[in-house]
Amino acid sequence: QVQLVESGGGLVQPGGSLRLSCAASGLAFTTYIMSWYRQAPGLERELVARIFSTGITNYADSVKGRFTISRDNSKNTVYLQMNSLKFEDTAVYYCQAFQPLPKRDYWGQGTQVTVSS
Predict the structure, then answer these.
(1) Which residues share a beta bridge with 11?
(2) Sheet of strand 77-82: strand arrangement
(3) Average pLDDT per run of 10 along the chain, which is 117 residues long?
(4) Could you write out the DSSP letters of every residue in the chain?
(5) Residue 85's closest CA among 22, 41, 20, 3?
(6) Which residues face 5 on adjacent strands?
(7) Closest C-alpha to 47, from 31, 30, 25, 64
(8) pLDDT in tens, 14-28
(9) Are 34 and 20 in contact (CB under 8 A)?
(10) Can you say whether residue 84 is alpha, beta or left, with left for phi > 0 and alpha for psi between -120 and 50 degrees?
């Protein structure tokens, strides 16, 4: 019943921008910590950004100053604004909803981001 639907991925040139969206349904959105992960071919999945219910955020060092995570609780949606994109940002980006008490997590299907000239 729980669904995380991601959108906004695509092909962009280096230095360009994209905004990813993750629309959640079937869960109490405000109780969940929302995160964006990414996985490039041949590499392990890594945490990109995280936002708590209070609005507090965490970022991977590689994206600090370039990416911004936000959430709209009225729309049950989390966003990832990506600016100044680099070749190494190319990956499949996944949305995660995590609730520590009780411990539960859900994942989206992923959306491809390709940075190429």
Answers:
(1) 114
(2) 3-7, 18-25, 77-82, 67-72
(3) 96 98 94 97 96 95 98 95 98 97 95 97
(4) --EEEEE--EEE-TT--EEEEEEEESS-GGGSEEEEEEE-TTS--EEEEEE-TTS-EEE-TTTTTTEEEEEETTTTEEEEEE-S--GGG-EEEEEEEEEETTEEEEE---EEEEE--
(5) 20
(6) 23
(7) 64
(8) 999 999 999 999 999
(9) no
(10) left
State how far the Cα of 67 lies from the Cα of 34, in Å rounded to an integer: 15
Residue 60 tokens read as 């991977």
Residue that has been written with the tokens 């190429």 in this structure: 116
The answer to whether 54 and 31 are in contact (CB under 8 A) is: no
- Residue 20's CB is within 10 A of a number of other CB atoms, namely 24
| Predicted local confidence at residue 81, as pLDDT | 98
Report how far residue 51's alpha carbon sits from residue 92's, in angstroms, rounded to the nearest whole number.
19
